[in-house]
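ARCHIVE RECORD
Type: protein–small molecule complex
Small molecule: FE2/S2 (inorganic) cluster
Source of inputs: curated submission
Record status: active
Notes field left blank by submitter.
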Amino acid sequence: MEEKVNPGGTGAALDLIEEHPILEFQHGKKITFFFDGRELEGFEGEPISSALHANGVRVYRETADMHRPRGFFCAIGKCSSCFMVVDGVPNVRTCVTPLTAGMRVETQRGRGVVPGSDEGGASS
Ligand code: FES
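STRUCTURE (tokenized, with ligand):
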């Protein structure tokens, strides 16, 4: 993958708000997962896209026709901007899907292809 598509995900310290004047943050257990083959850290149960964002990853997929990068948009599971391939399954809305240890997350390029199928899924 070209660096311009996903410049983040360097494995550096997580980019998180540690202190806030009125909010408290509670995280699940720290775990590792894989993004395009690279091992990254996140917190169990947080949205996959949040873990990616904390690791500096901003691009989650490329559109099918124009190959344009897409990342967060609604962040509430109502669009298709954050579709990724998760454990081999395409078109997973990563903003509402909890992270688990060892999960394999991949940038989705174009329409998702369901394993064992010749057809692509709906995505543009
Ligand atoms: S960012 Fe819209 S569904 Fe995830």
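CURATOR ANNOTATION: The longest helix spans residues 48-54.
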